[in-house]
Design a protein that fits this description.
7 helices; two-stranded antiparallel ribbon; mainly alpha
Length: 193
């Protein structure tokens, strides 16, 4: 009889392989029916998030020599890519809704709609905001701010670990320390999306 660790490893291997299979299938279908390059490029970036999550989770489960350092690096790459995916998703959303920040185009169907913010967003902006060019421009600004801050936090964390300045007690809880910074920036734009 197999022990529970082996069963979990086999199950996670199967799930990771299944994710890779479906992601490759979806990517190939997009390449096969390449009709709208601008939108499909953003969709491809979003699709690649699933196999990256699967690989990151799988590496987090297995334990081999140096796997903790590799997992921390891979998790940092995943977080940076996740920030980029969020920006691509916003761009795709703007494209589908025919919103152009540079040309000051906001469709009449969404112009003036009210967005209700919840805590902690209300610490920075009013409880409700009307959708207009400035609100959409601010949303794009906050998104790109997150895209820049996430890699800076990851690079800072890895550099501090390599130099030996990053305390060992923090390494076990690095998710809490650096994820809090990322979460604060996420709170700015995610409720709006």
């Amino acid at each position: 009889m197999a022990n529970p660790a082996q069963i979990i490893l086999l199950g996670s291997t199967f799930c990771a392989m299944l994710t890779l299979h479906f992601s490759i299938q979806l990517l190939s279908e997009h390449f096969l029916y390449w009709k709208k390059p601008k939108e499909q490029k953003a969709i491809l970036v979003i699709i690649l998030m699933a196999p990256l999550y699967a690989i990151d989770s799988y590496v987090g489960l297995i334990d081999f020599q140096g796997s903790k350092a590799f997992f921390m690096f891979l998790d940092s790459v995943k977080e940076c890519y996740e920030a980029f995916v969020i920006a691509k998703f916003l761009a795709l959303l703007y494209s589908y809704l025919n919103i152009s920040i540079s040309k000051n185009i906001v469709p009449d169907g969404i112009k003036g709609r009210e967005i209700h913010h919840s805590f902690p967003m209300t610490l920075f902006v009013p409880r409700s905001v009307r959708l207009n060019h400035n609100a959409l421009k601010l949303l794009k600004y906050w998104t790109w701010q997150f895209v820049v801050i996430r890699p800076v936090c990851s690079i800072l964390m890895i550099t501090l670990q390599l130099v030996g300045v990053y305390p060992s007690w923090v390494i076990h809880n690095y998710f809490e320390h650096f994820s809090v910074t990322g979460s604060v920036f996420s709170c700015h734009f995610l409720p709006c999306v």
